[in-house]
Write a structure and sequence with these properties.
CATH superfamily of the largest domain: Umud Fragment, subunit A
Order of helices and strands: HEEEEEEEEHEEEE
Largest sheet: 8 strands, antiparallel
Radius of gyration: 25 Å
Strand content: 25-35%
CATH class of the largest domain: Mainly Beta
Length: 185
């Protein structure tokens, strides 16, 4: 009799453990899916500093799209730099292009392009002056912050041209503050 009760308790205990595990499976799956999405598809990033002011402000939370690797001029991207930190900047020059700024005007391949920044706050430079390159090498991008006076970007040798492998993705959505929530242009 005691033996039957002991076997029954053992079976009941195993059944309870199985039931608990079965109830946890959906939560475990959800956690795994969230981790995979955050690691490989989208993740939040926080703006630090004023280099993209006034378009992006310090403390804003953005959604980084890790899947889109087709960067176009004026896209906002997040890139890893020399010290392992992240920068949020705007793509100005694409691979195979020349970039110059003269008299407050942006020139790509020698032709004036309407810049995203309206104010005349960018000192004159050229890709040739900065890095002795005729064109941006394949697989690299020239990036700048919107607040050109304080931005640590491709004009500075410690940042330089950004390798495509260092670009983590592009930004398309502002998540926070909620009163500025929405797609970025």
């Amino acid at each position: 009799m005691k033996e039957k009760e002991s076997k029954k308790e053992k079976v009941d205990s195993q059944t309870r453990i199985f039931d608990i595990f079965r109830e946890l499976i959906p939560y475990i799956v959800i956690i795994i899916v969230v981790i995979l999405i955050r690691s490989f598809i989208v993740t939040p990033v926080r703006v630090k500093g004023d280099s993209m002011y006034p378009y992006l402000k310090d403390g804003e939370v953005l959604i980084l799209n890790k899947l889109d690797k087709s960067y176009k001029r004026f896209d906002i991207v997040v890139a890893s730099v020399y010290d392992g930190s992240q920068i949020i900047k705007r793509v100005i020059g694409l691979p195979g292009e020349t970039v110059a700024y003269k008299d407050c005007k942006l020139y790509i391949n020698g032709e004036e392009v309407e810049d995203f920044v309206d104010e005349c706050i960018t000192n004159d430079f050229s890709l040739q002056d900065l890095y002795n390159y005729e064109i941006i090498p394949e697989g690299y991008y020239f990036v700048m912050g919107d607040n050109r006076l304080v931005s640590l970007d491709s004009r500075r040798p410690e940042i330089g041209l950004i390798s495509e492998s260092k670009i983590e993705g592009s930004i398309a959505i502002r998540l926070y503050p909620f009163n500025r929530f929405g797609r970025l242009k």
